[in-house]
Amino acid sequence: MDSSIKSQQETREQAVVRVSAIGIAANVALVAFKMFVGAVTGSIAVILDAVNNLTDALSSVVTIVGAKLAAKAPDKKHPLGYGRIEYVSAMIVAAIVLYAGITSLVESVKGIIWPEPASYDTVSLVIIAAAVVVKLVLGRYVKAQGEKHKSGALVASGADALFDAVLSASVLAAAIVFMLTGLSLESYIGVVISVVIVKSGVEMLLETLDEILGHRVDSELVEQVKETLRSDDAVIDAYDLVLHSYGPEKYIGSVHIEIPDTMTIPELDALERKLAGLVFQEHGVALGGIGIYSVNTRDSEAMGVRKRVYDCTASHPEVLQTHGFYLDKQARQIRFDVILEFGCDTAEVVSAIKGELGELYPGHDVYVQVDSDIDL
Q1: Of 136, 188, 271, 307, which has the fewest CB atoms closer than 10 Å, so is most exposed?
Q2: ∠260-265-267 over CA atoms, to 5°?
Q3: DSSP reduced 3-state for 11
Q4: How many angstroms separate the CA atoms of 52 and 104, rounded?
Q5: Sign of dihedral through CA atoms 223, 229, 234, 235?
Q6: Around 147, how many Cα atoms within 13 Å sit in the side-chain half-sphere?
Q7: Longest distance between any two alpha carbons in the chain, whole Å
Q8: Treating both helix axes as pointing N-terminal to C-terminal, what angle do 152-181 and 122-148 enclose, rounded to 10 degrees?
Q9: Contact (Cβ atoms closer than 8 angstroms) between residue 241 and residue 222
Q10: pLDDT for 31-84, tens place per residue?
């Protein structure tokens, strides 16, 4: 592994651990204060708010463990590394949050059915107000660090902390209303907090499942990798970039490049090695395979055929892109790839294209390879 990439990964791991540790310390302090206030005042809303902070602290612990395990070096059993452990840790965090939310909801409903009066004093209000400020500062810091180090877990934790500040503010507002009017909104606020916690847990679970199932890679990264490939004078263009995620910021993939049909095998071998190294050095993406599209560069007739083929495919709205064209005169073959939109009748579109080209170029075999819409 390139030393600069390894250094970046170590820096990211250290940042995740450091920020998570700060989050744990802050949340544990908030849990202690809020539990004390909740016990003294008898406020179920304050106690549930403390439980929410406790789940945040537990989530940070799981995040640290996940980051440490994910940073383990590849071995014989797991040759592609342990990066996907972060997805497992995110599932655990989601389960913790869901459990806390459901438990809190049950207790809040009990409080509505069998209400118990709360009692506040100035010190309690000051502590709750301080908690709001701490959560605001913590949330902004954690989210900023997450964006800086491209850690989805930290960004989510920061956003969650900012929302917790809003929840704590609602608890403070309920306490003030009670002191001024004698109207107790504790259990109702508790229900709102519980629903928010459950919603957060469900969203975390769905996001993690989305990562595990595999989703479209960030278009900015795709274009950056393609630009790096195109930067070499020998590469005409790049297509079909497929990236498989093995944890945050860890990708292994393949790509096709168009090159002149004048290149020799030794030149091609040198080019592939050069491009793979360059992409890994600049983006941390390991290209396991680089496929080749040979482009007619010495035959003006072939270039004319190419234009007519591209015009033909463009007339079909289902075709998103055409690439990889090659005319083999000796074998009387026309070869190219098309990317079709999801949901269309692939067989029907391909049959129509082959039929039209068959009329234009009788006696030629038309080979149409259908690619998936992965990197557009």
Answers
A1: 307
A2: 70
A3: helix
A4: 9
A5: negative
A6: 7
A7: 93
A8: 160
A9: yes
A10: 888 788 778 777 666 777 787 778 778 777 877 887 788 778 788 888 777 877
